[in-house]
Write a structure and sequence with these properties.
The chain is an alpha/beta fold and 407 residues long. It folds into 2 domains: 2-148, ATPase, nucleotide binding domain (Nucleotidyltransferase, domain 5); 198-385, ATPase, nucleotide binding domain (Nucleotidyltransferase, domain 5, 2-Layer Sandwich). It contains 14 helices and 14 strands. The strands form 2 sheets. The protein has an 8-stranded mixed beta sheet with strand order 5-4-3-2-1-6-8-7. It has a 6-stranded mixed beta sheet with strand order 11-10-9-12-14-13, sandwiched between helices. A hairpin with a 4-residue loop joins strand 2 (13-19) and strand 3 (24-32). Helix 1 (61-73) packs across helix 3, helix 7 (249-258) packs across helix 8 (262-271) and helix 10 (285-293) crosses helix 11. It starts with a strand and ends with a helix. The protein binds adenosine-5'-diphosphate (ADP). Adenosine-5'-diphosphate is lined by residues 211-213, 240, 284-286, 331-333, 336-337.
Length: 407
Amino acid sequence: MKVLVINCGSSSLKYQMLDMTIESLLAKGIVERIGMTGSMLTHEKVGVEEKFVVKEEMNDHKDAIAKVIDALVDPSHGVVKNMSCIGAVGHRVVHAGEKYSGSVIIDKDVIEALEECIDLAPLHNPPNLLGIAACQELMPGTPQVAVFDTAFHQTMPPESYTYAIPYEYYEKYGIRRYGFHGTSHKYVADRAAYMLGASIDDLKIITCHLGNGASVSAIKRGKCIDTSMGFTPLAGLAMGTRSGSVDPAIIQFIAEKEDRSIDDVLNILNKESGMLGISGVSSDFRDLEAALNEGNERAALALKVFAHRVRYYIGAYMLEMNGLDALVFTAGVGENDINMRDVICNELGNVGIKLDPVKNRVRGREAIISRDDSKVSILMIPTNEELVIARDTYALSNKKIGLNRGK
Ligand code: ADP
């Protein structure tokens, strides 16, 4: 079965087409500037070097998905004969609140539940819903599956997810920690167990998803028991442009001093803080490392703050799990920034974490990068959220097709 994976943002859309009978990628692409001037689709067919670029106005997500389908069935750049060859569509959906702890086939009830979650993810769930509606319209009858960023973290115990604020706010508004990047944390934890030749049920794992957005999770016997992001993805680690957790009183203080609204300050904490805010240079770790090498002190400070926060969570989660078997690095920074991995693991030998500086010189492929005498295995694992989405979509839609046949 061919599965189309869709990840809709407000003005962009990423997609991948996979053949799930052999789990291989056939094509991938991105549509940018949806609903703006200069909309553009860039499509890459596996094995073909030249990219297929379409520059046409795309006023909304339906326009964009129609162009994606055109590219996928294009006689020279496409990978399927026609639309009916697409067996199922998997959608990355950011927030499912407490409603779902796993992926689901999308039906009316699921759409309603996701609409109810818009309050919890006002930036993310609306474009996800637009993508689902567009696919339902353009591909009627093709099973659609939702795979949630929050689902993997639903196993957290109440003491991990409860904020120490009046309990009625949890009851009335669902204010609690949810966590994000769940698909990635789950994928790399499963891969780590496989690479170590162990059952995930026997392991205590800390997964560090360090990208532009970043989070750390504690995974005990395959279940997430804690994670650094919270009610929103603003919490936890310092990130590319996000502050991570700050003293909440700072928000009102800045609003008063700078004569800005609460909305403005939250925007600053989301978009002008983190590595960009501290360094004044960039949110991109490559730029920060370059600035560091030129002696830029604030870039150096930003990188130190980042590493400090990651170490802080690693320490906390080791204690929470009463030990650690595997420490995993993934996502843009975790996969590529050799220096950052080195700084994070620096001088942790006394707690059993010993990075091998030679094995650590790796990018783009899975590797065990700890020293042979390290009690904790350290792994670098490129994440593959699309594969997890495609696997769940394949499994659920096969089940649905089987059930329909049985009727
Ligand atoms: P997201 O999906 O959250 O946008 P990614 O996981 O794609 O983020 O990570 C993107 C980030 O990875 C970039 O902003 C950059 O900081 C970092 N990155 C990518 N390549 C490198 C590299 N070679 N060295 C250091 N950092 C890198």
